[in-house]
Protein 1
Amino acid sequence: QECSKKQKNDDTQSTSVDALSSNNGSEEKNEFDTLANAKILLSDCLACDSCMTVEEGARVFQQNQKEFFRILNLNKKCDTSKHKILAVSLCPQSLPYFAAKFNLSVNEAAKRLCGFLKSLGVHYVFDTTIAADFSILESQREFVQRYQRRNQEEHALPMFASACPGWIRYAERVLTNLVTSHICTAKSPQQIMGSLVKGYFAKQQNLSPDKIFHIVVAPCYDKKLEALREDFYTALYNSAEVDCVLTSGEIVQIMEQKDVSMKDVTEVAVDSLFDDLKEGDVVRHDGKRSDGYLEHIFKHAAKELFGVDVKEITYKALKNKDFQEVTLEKDGETVLRFAAAYGFRNIQNMVLKLKKGKFSYHFVEVLACPGGCLNGKGQAQTEDGKPDKALLAQMEEVYTAIPVRLPETNVHVQRMYQDWLEGMDSKKVQDTLHTTYSAVNQSTSSLDIKW
């Protein structure tokens, strides 16, 4: 709505505002009607020059707590044969927020969050770390293949990470195919989790994908837009891989509405996708504030391409702490040059260098939020929309203390490659774990804003 005020065309403005604030007047009132609607401020935007279409705005508006409780309430009223199975997937970068905010260990936070969600009527609560395992492994393999093709294929390198939906949206809506052709085709952890829940898990439980309502708890608002992508929707079952994204902050709003303290909630072990197993202690990937694509791909490439075992990675900060580089030298020559570019300003500088042909990096981990995923706008923000620096520092401390597990060591992942995905080089791997990115031509119904 803030964006639409900038429009010169009053008709377009009123249409978009109505779409965003529409509410079915006949909708039955319930105890959760007082929940605040999700607010995305102008300051939360990536500040690209192309905004959401009216249709997207209306659909994002549905990605809030009320949609979650609409399904919960339907389950209470309708015949059991029409029930939806509610599955919630927790992002690893959300757990430190709950741990720091409520002064809990990260394992306590995961179990109490699981207990709270199940007390509301959720059937399963999963950890998305396994989805990040798949995403990192596929990204590693793709980088090595691109590196080997670099002399034959113009757009093979550099390769950009594909895990951040804010960056992806900016690249597709604003930048040209010159940039999108460099983006890794591996799906993000969120969308691979969607494939796991609506594909693998649904099959294990003998459920049709449309019988599962899949919610993801994430650190940022851009994940809501990612869930709406057409390539993450199965027309055959009329089912999206992720039906609703709630930010960590929106979960806290629900707790406040219910007058529940995390410290009073019973601990319940987080579910596993496999039979009746439960998850153990929380683990993470290498990386200070994200899923660690740079570190994992760098170590893998060093070993696969140059036979070098890299134990510790040394970051070199350049213009600012959110633009850092990592290099590998062999026989006096720099053979790998990676970078981490966080925040819109660094992304702009990076793209400018690419367009000028002055780009020396083989891989860049790109994240839209300064400071990375822990600093997502859906958590660790004060009421006026500014970062809560004290809370963020606590979150970083919590996240760093979580034990690291290499994706290659996850036996479930290795088994699923063979049993579910029909081998690592199969067509099913490409269809399930990969997607494509390309420049999008904006339609006339979009809100085009020049910043």
Protein 2
Amino acid sequence: DLQICQHRAPTCCTKKMEESYQAAVRRERTQSIQALNFELKYMIVGHITAFQEAFESLLRFAENRTSSLFETAYRPMAKEAAEPVKELFTDISLYILGAETTVESAVLRFFDNLFPLVYSRLINPGITDLSEDYTECLRLTRQDINPFGHYSKNMVTELTKSLWASRMLNQALSLGIEVINTTEHAALTKECSRALVKMQYCPHCQGLTLIRPCVGYCLNVMRGCLASVSELDAQWREFISTLEYLTNEMAASHDLEITLSGIWNSINEAILHAQLNGPQLSATVDKVCGQPKQQEGNLSSANIVPVKEVTETQTFVMAHTSLSKKRREFINYMKRSRTFYASIAERLCDGDLVMRDSSTCWNGEDVV
């Protein structure tokens, strides 16, 4: 009553043993593919972790640098500016990690919240009554009167260019893990598990426990079993090319690290621009929002404090170097895995499964 290991000679197998063999080959095949995938998955997961850690380090550095700008140059508004600064960097972090948001909305919201502070603490420091309605009017007016000139738009452009590739790379790496996990658990067809039993266990039914499959026979069986997985070859190669493109984009002129470290400078330039145009802005705001209560005298000119370039700290240099180095190592490894899905059958037939250094092997029917 054997269904798979039918042979003319006497056999030591039963139908129940055949069923056990089918369960065994399914388990072994999953384990073999997992073993092949392990290094590749380990590299991708490791890079996601390293990338996110280095990115968070750069982001913290950029946020600290921006906060210190307010504390040293714009002390009258430093305390109130802390929350908008924190929000801006949180939004940037969420964008990189794939949240449904845009760089433009994050940056413009930051400048919307910044304008009431700049107007009431630097341009007109005598304002005593900053009601919610007046603050909201200033926030909405920012979009029309453009107090920060081209600096706010430039910041949107620069950040969008440099963060886009990082966001895409993060999503692409997550997709890579998903693909690998899916192929690990690809179900074997009934025909495939029967073919694997015939190749690996039917010799045992003849007492031939030391004979292993012939190389060519193993390749034919594995290619048949893994046809659906090897179909991923073209898409996987394209995926690797996309990773290469994205890492090159990140290292190009709109470098992520340089852009993040320059946020404080863009904000500083924007605030200086608003202060230098203070009289015109005040005239426009008075027409739109009305005149708030004010103390005698205007001290705005005394608050213009140009900030010189802050020297690069060791933290930033280390994070920058670390991220660049990891990026190069990772993409070089991934380029070597281009043929991963095309060669999966060959790799599974390598090693202990087949008889390489012997004159005899199992061809599915007999020892040859």
Protein 3
Amino acid sequence: VKMAGDSRFPDVDTDGSEKNEETEIVVNVGGVRQVFYGDNLNQYPETRLAELINCLSGGYDSIFSLCDDYDPGKREFYFDRDPDAFKCIIDVYYFGEIHMKKGICPICFKNEMEFWKVDLKFLDDCCKTHLSEKKEELEEIARRVQLILDDLGIDASESRWKRCQKYIWKFLEKPESSYPARVIAVLSFLFILISSVVMCVGTIPDLQVVDAEGNRMEHPTLDSIETACIGWFTIEYVLRLISSPNKLHFALSFMNIVDVLAILPFYVSLTLTHLGAKLMELSNVQQAVQALRIMRIARIFKLARHSSGLQTLTYALKRSFKELGLLLMYLAVGIFVFSALGYTMEQSHPETLFKSIPQSFWWAIITMTTVGYGDIYPKTTLGKLNAAISFLCGVIAIALPIHPIINNFVRYYNKQRVLETAAKHELELMELNSAEGKAANSKSELEILAREGKEDPFHCSRLKVSHSDTFIHLLSEEKHYRTRLQSCK
């Protein structure tokens, strides 16, 4: 350690003033030497490099408060920092902005900027985006780790009802928490499939029965299966609602609204069937029941709760609203233009199928999407040419936004996998650090016991017992954690 007044530093006066004031300084960052001039550094006087100009007048205490080492012979300041990040940061003195190179961790680069006392406002907007994305990833990892720790932890101060709520919530919402929870998740998935299949099979005429009024209705066996599935969905929803930590957030969640829409039609139609006939005509009741039974298709969306792939697709579509909007805009413009042209070109034909421009919208839609039902088609040569151009433009309009949408899906899917892996690594590191901390405490106890054993043979016997019963056991735990870490990688 170099101290003030050391004979090895002859270029600094004892009163702390410089003998020969110069306007340039030499900085060595991780083996990379850079020469700076005072007029450049003084543009930003609050930065660390600008403070180096005047630090020599403050003596070695002032020097070593800013750098790691100093060579008075070469007048060179040494810093044990990242040279690649430093090369990016010094751009602020020449260009007034900073760009972060590829391959540098945004969080580490932010720490480097804080060390050199350069404000983040000089970081370019494109690099700020990478920094904000990295912060969001770290926050998401911390949130996932905290959720796992909350699930593992048991607060003895909580009431029995609170502990029971947590257990039910984990049992129904987190299949990975235990084997019975996985069984419940599989059962719920099977009930959704059975209910969807029953809804479809119930519309087959050969499986329907005729009631006293001559109306067709579902087979009683299928109706009983439907009732059992609805009973399962109802019990599951009520238990999840009771055990949810935040009931308002639970009720307003999109997937939980889907659950309500899948359950509600059954009870509404049941109420109308038994009570509605007294208030309105029977035919109106049957029409209302049939309309409500159509809403049973909402239960197929319950599969998204048990499928990470469907959830990823939903989030990817949310991130692709801009691309989807462009697709719809292209199609809307093309539909309007080609339907108007088709109506104009076909109007002179005596057997034209284009009666009006709004009616031509249907033809433009099925043509640009390359469906082509054939119910409306052009009969003139110009109309056929217009149709050919319209479906070629439709193929191009549909194909252009598809690639960005697929990229969003792949990026989000890979990101979720990385976050899951990172959360597991974080938990493994926490376990490893905990094991190392216990080993360090045991080692300090062993050293104390070893010193005491020189004076008292009784402590020697304690040392042997402590070494064999505690220290080796922790080593085996540490080895176990390292193996799990390597397997995660």
Protein 4
Amino acid sequence: QGAHIIVTPEEGIYGWFFTRETIYPCLEDIPDPQVDWIPCTDPGRHFPPEHEEKRLSCEGARAVAQAAQRGCGVSFPGDIQTPPGHGPWFDFFSNIFSPSFLFHEQYKLFVTEKQFNYPKDPEFVTFNASFGYFGIFTCADILYHDPAVVLARRLQVDTILFPAAWGNTLPLLSAVQFHSAWAMGMGVNFLSANTCNSTLEVTGNRISVIQKRKMVTFCFLVTELHSCPCLSPDYPAVVNWKLYASCIEQLPSNDHYFSGVVYHVLFSFMELSDPEGDCAVCQQDLRCHLSYKMAEEQEDDVYVLGAFDGLRIVEGESYLQICTLLKCKSTDLGTCGQPVETAQTKFEMFSLSGTFGTNYVFPEVLYSGVQLATGEFEVM
């Protein structure tokens, strides 16, 4: 159909393997990107003639697909139980076929991937095309300054290509929320190919394209993008969230805080006891402020304003500051933070802001264009 870019999900070639033993038959002897080799025209030089790399290289588009590399100078079979950094080197990385290839070695791994290896230093992989300037990283890399922020801010790529396998379940809907919010916060097009595996709760935005603060989600997507979204005259200006929150009148201290856990981290919460008003909740250096007005308040719906400021040690370590407006599962405040499937209360308006200690602020859900009030919300 004339596509210029094809992005496949994480583990897209060989499936979902999570041990050094099971991935052993899939390991590739990938030549260095500096090697002048086009798999399509010389398929037998490094791989068997009918290898996947040949097919991808012959697609006529830049195809992004992930493979695992066999370490240099390693003879097999070897001790495939050896911990990372010793013995066989199993790299996860993404090839880019155009029609030759270069690759990005995944820099940050989740806990379940720590049996594999990763490069000592982050790599910043980019390539130019007639239709834009592209960067690539994989899955957990998006959560860290290197390489994700560097590609978007310092190298100023137009579009990020992102093979991923992200969970997408309540209460966070992680993939839908974070990927769209990250793209808006960074001002780039974001082509996210997310694995679909309902048994692993890896569902949701299989391919997402973010442009001009809009998001579309399909299992398979063919679309046209503005090659330089941040240079477009109608692209919205960046919002200074910290400045906005700092200008709001300081509210008196509130002693009605309580704690609750959302996705393994401990939030400070305050109940919205009135149908409209202004409130604030603090945790360490973070102050979250909410202005709101409920149009139709339901007795069985309890909402809270929450703040989290600290180190999150789940599937790796990341320092986060989060302001959230969320519905509790029941009128029991002890359920606040648990997954919620339905809500009846309608908000006429709300404005949520925080005194964040960083310029990298990612607004999620409503600001991304997701309409919570329309249609049914299905839990997969």
